[in-house]
Specification:
Helices cover 17% and strands 27% of the residues. It is an alpha+beta fold. It has one domain. The radius of gyration is 14 Å and the shape is globular. The two termini are 25 Å apart. 2% of the residues are buried.
Length: 66
């Protein structure tokens, strides 16, 4: 399901919001997407991490043509 969300973000060129983010810590200069998805016209690649119990891990990188 996560990969579907990644592919849709690439297709629509939008960054989905960070899950469960209520308030960002002002001491950290991170570009977090808060509240609603944000346009990202130059989005070409996205990454999906899947970590499971027992050491079964996978990382998928999806990309699109310019």
């Amino acid at each position: 399901m996560e990969l579907v969300a990644v592919l849709r973000a690439l297709e629509q060129r939008r960054l989905p919001p960070t899950a469960h983010l209520r308030a960002a810590d002002p001491d950290f200069a991170l570009d977090l997407v808060q509240g609603a998805a944000r346009p990202a016209a130059d989005l070409l690649y996205a990454l999906s991490n899947s970590f499971a119990f027992g050491g079964t891990n996978a990382v998928l990188i999806a990309g699109r043509d310019g």
